[in-house]
Each structure stands twice: as structure tokens, then as C-alpha cells.
Design a protein that fits this description.
Elements (H helix, E strand, L loop, with lengths): L1 H33 L4 E7 L5 E7 L15 H4 L2 H9 L6 H7 L3 E3 L25 E3 L12 H14 L2 H17 L23
Parallel strand pairs: 3-4
Antiparallel strand pairs: 1-2
């Protein structure tokens, strides 16, 4: 655990400082194109089934229908947001989550805190480790995976995690980012809601 945390800080701190000018430039573009807030903050599930504040660059508008309900993700996702997601630049603020200790560079992707009560005992094991910016599921399909496939890969990582496996995942992440694979789910612009193991087929 200490070795993993050391790896996180050794990479995340200098990378965050190096990318600050790029983050500042993206902040100005997003502020001009989509308004504020530029940083999207949301409660996500973390280590030990606890919730934490998760940060991303904003990729969607806040457009709502006549009843005040948010429009579908596919409508609110802007062209700039699509580009940010395809390049994974929207994930850069999560380096701050890593520095804070909420996340690791490698681990299961943090999902909505609302999902914490919906997992079965096996799926809940994904929270035995810190969530990650990248992970085993991200280099093996990303959002093109179904929920059962994604959770199976997350649990596999928890059971087989090691320092060398983390290095392998980090290395393979660059190839996945270069090919821009699995950014969207086949049936929607983003991953469909997880309703629970007995209710969600995909």
C-alpha cells in the first residue's frame, strides 16, 4: 500500500504542476464556451464504500426541459465536451484527487455515490481499494463494456493487484488514449445508469 501511494505521489505531483498551464488554458476555453462552473464536482464512491468529491472538467451544459429536469446527456454534451472526453483531458483535475488521497492513479473507476447501496457483495469489493484515474477495465474496453463486464474486471484487479500490474496498466493506458477507444457506450453518449445487479443488463 505504501509503495502504491509513493508511486501515486511521485507521478501525480510533478504531472499536476507540469499541466497547470494547460489546465489554465482549458479553464478559459470552457468558461468562454460553456460558462461556469468550469470544474464539475460530484460525489463518487471511494475506498471503504465512502463518498468523496470527484473533480472533472465540465463537458455538458445544464439545459433543462419545461419541468426543470435535466435533458439527456446526448443533448447536453457539447462538441467541446466530446473532444475533451475523447482526449481524456476532462480527467486532468483528478490528479488533485490523487494528491489528496481520494484516488489512486490505478484502480476501479469511481462511480456515483448513489450506486453504493446497489452493489451486491461481489461488486462491492471494488471499494476494497482506492478508485483510479485508469484501471483494468479502462484498458480492456472502457465504456464499451456492459456493467457486469466492467465489475468483473474491477474485482479481478482487486484480487490480483500488484505494483507490476499497476505499471502495466499505466503503460497500456497511453495506447488506449492514443486510439481513443471505448469512450462512449454503444447505446448512449455516456454510460447508462447502474440500477443494481438484478435490474441492469448492460
Amino acid at each position: 500500500m505504501r509503495l502504491k501511494r509513493s508511486l501515486d505521489l511521485t507521478i501525480a505531483v510533478p504531472l499536476f504542476l507540469l499541466l497547470l498551464p494547460a489546465l489554465a488554458a482549458l479553464w478559459m476555453v470552457i468558461r468562454f464556451r460553456m460558462g461556469s462552473p468550469v470544474i464539475f464536482r460530484q460525489k463518487r464512491g471511494g475506498l471503504g464504500n465512502t463518498a468523496f468529491d470527484f473533480y472533472k472538467l465540465r463537458t455538458m451544459t445544464d439545459e433543462r426541459d419545461a419541468d426543470g429536469k435535466l435533458l439527456p446527456d446526448s443533448v447536453r454534451l457539447t462538441p467541446l465536451g466530446v473532444w475533451l472526453r475523447r482526449t481524456s483531458l476532462d480527467e486532468l483535475p483528478q490528479l488533485w484527487n490523487v494528491i489528496r488521497g481520494d484516488m489512486s492513479l490505478v484502480g476501479p473507476r469511481p462511480l456515483l455515490a448513489d450506486y453504493l447501496a446497489r452493489y451486491d457483495a461481489t461488486q462491492r469489493r471494488r471499494h476494497d481499494v482506492r478508485p483510479g484515474i485508469t484501471g483494468w477495465a479502462q484498458i480492456n474496453g472502457r465504456n464499451s463494456l456492459s456493467w457486469p463486464e466492467k465489475f468483473a474486471l474491477d474485482v479481478w484487479y482487486v484480487e490480483h493487484r500488484s505494483f507490476l500490474l499497476d505499471l502495466q496498466i499505466l503503460w497500456r493506458t497511453f495506447a488506449v488514449l492514443f486510439r481513443r477507444e471505448g469512450v462512449s457506450h454503444a447505446s448512449s453518449a455516456t454510460m447508462p445508469e447502474f440500477l443494481g445487479p438484478t435490474k441492469t443488463a448492460s
